[in-house]
Amino acid sequence: METAEQYTTILRQVLEEEKATIEHLIITHWHGDHIGGANAVQNLIKTMNPTKTSTIWKFPRSPEDTGMTKAEESTNWQALTNKQIVKVQGAKLCVEYTPGHTSDHVSLMLEDEGILFSGDCILGERTTVFEDLHSYMASLNKILAMKPQVIYPGHGTVINDSIANINFYIQHRQKREAEILEFLQNNSKNSTLSEMDIAKHIYTDLSDTMRKAAAYNIEHHLCKLLKEGKVKGEKGKWQSL
């Protein structure tokens, strides 16, 4: 991962070559690898053109989230709203609220070109993690309905087969959910099961470290199923209905 200094060095070169300026910095969500370099970029803009002003934008986090990070607190950002339009010369971006990966996550639709900047909602290298699976699945279906032609993810390569990729994300989660429900139905009638119990059954070929990460995702699946009335229990103690 590049440092802020390495990134701004490359960015300066591109801006000079293209004779371009930056007016808006839109942050897709609060994670440090996204908001962490915003101040450095804004300082670069001021250095290159002292009369040029720029605005940092980010969607507010859910009130249930406990406190802001140091990066959020030290960044002077303005609050985005769902469906907000951000215009610059030659481009118009529509802000689409797509929570789930985080409570403040947004994707950005370059409307005239059918291009989606998906942040960490959809990646170009693997499936992503999420804070709330119920919200995340709703966001994936929202993006599917938008029918983007090309997706530029926050990590990984450009996605040209966008619809197939979105469907893969949805179907992958649905498959995991079906496996979790089936295992609970067959093994939790007389006792409760933990997230790790389920992970050891579903992810038989993972290391202990990776299985812990899998158990984290399984917990979010179970919380979604609990909201939908398909399982009962609490963290570490789950049963089928």
Task: Please provide a written account of the structure.
With about 240 residues, the chain is of the alpha/beta class. It is about 40% helix and about 20% strand. It has helices at about 5-20, 30-35, 40-50, 70-75, 135-145, 160-185, 195-200, 210-225, and strands spanning about 25, 55-60, 75-80, 85-90, 90-95, 105-110, 115-120, 150-155, 230-235, 235-240. A five-stranded mixed sheet has the order 4-5-6-7-8, with no helix packed on it. Strands 1-2-3 form a three-stranded parallel sheet, with helices on one face. Helix 5 runs antiparallel to helix 6, helix 6 (about 160-185) crosses helix 8 (about 210-225) and helix 7 (about 195-200) packs across helix 8. The protein is elongated. The mean pLDDT is about 90.
List keywords for this structure.
alpha/beta; 241 residues; 42% helix; single chain
Secondary structure blueprint with pairings:
Layout: H1 4-18, E1 24-27, H2 32-35, H3 38-48, E2 55-58, H4 70-73, E3 77-79, E4 85-88, E5 91-97, E6 106-110, E7 115-119, H5 133-146, E8 150-153, H6 162-187, H7 195-202, H8 208-227, E9 231-234, E10 237-240
Parallel strand pairs: 1-2, 2-3, 7-8
Antiparallel strand pairs: 4-5, 5-6, 6-7, 9-10
Helix pairs in contact: 1-3, 5-6, 6-8, 7-8
Structural class: alpha/beta
Write down the overall mean pLDDT. Answer: 92
Morphology call? elongated
What percent strand? 15-25%
Quick take:
By secondary structure, the chain is an alpha/beta fold. It has eight helices and ten strands.
